[in-house]
Amino acid sequence: MRTSNITREQALALLREYNKEGFHIQHGLTVEGVMRWYANELGYAVTKSRSIRWKRSFSRRTSLPD
Fold it and tell me: Is residue 65 left, alpha or beta, with left meaning phi > 0 and alpha meaning psi from -120 to 50?
């Protein structure tokens, strides 16, 4: 699994640097929330540092849910 060394605060600063309209900032934050929800549904855990790690063994889920 790939990981990133960028913090959420750094990512938000980059988002705001390159996107000046409020709609784009809100869209980015919405996408963040949706991705966090999908990570949880697919068996990943969001840690306190907001990084995502696998929390289930592959033997428990071998295919995507219906």
Answer: beta
